[in-house]
Amino acid sequence: MQLDPIRHDTDVPPFEQARAQIAARIAAGELPSGTRLPTVRALAADLDVAVNTVARVYKELEADGLVVTEGRRGTHVSSTSPGADVREASSAYVRACRRHGLTQAEAVRLVETGWNP
């Protein structure tokens, strides 16, 4: 699995950059169900980040139901990833925002407000 390099010149923490990339690839189907992810140590070395950073990435992806970790078998993309459900929910959200006359910027602000209450 190849991820974009972690940028250290941004306000987005390294763990969030990696988490978002993996989650986006799962949602897009680039990492299908059952795909084995690299070990924590291997991905940390590839991204040039601390092992704890990648451990946190995998922990958060697991909490979101996107991956499962099975001890020595490693971490795999979950068979129940919410990709299609999330795409449908986002489409419904966009339709509702348009019906109410919101701009894209206003809709994004609402998501950001809900994301960080």
Question: Can you characterise this structure?
Answer:
This protein has 5 helices and 2 strands, in the order αααββαα. By secondary structure, the chain is mostly helical. A two-stranded antiparallel sheet has the order 1-2. Strand 1 and strand 2 form a beta hairpin. Helix 1 (14-27) packs across helix 3. The chain is globular.
Fraction in beta strands: 5-15%
Largest sheet: 2 strands, antiparallel
Compressed to H and E, one letter per element, the order equals: HHHEEHH
Helix content: 40-55%
Q: TL;DR?
A:
Helix content is 55%, strand content 5%. The chain has 117 residues and is mainly alpha-helical.
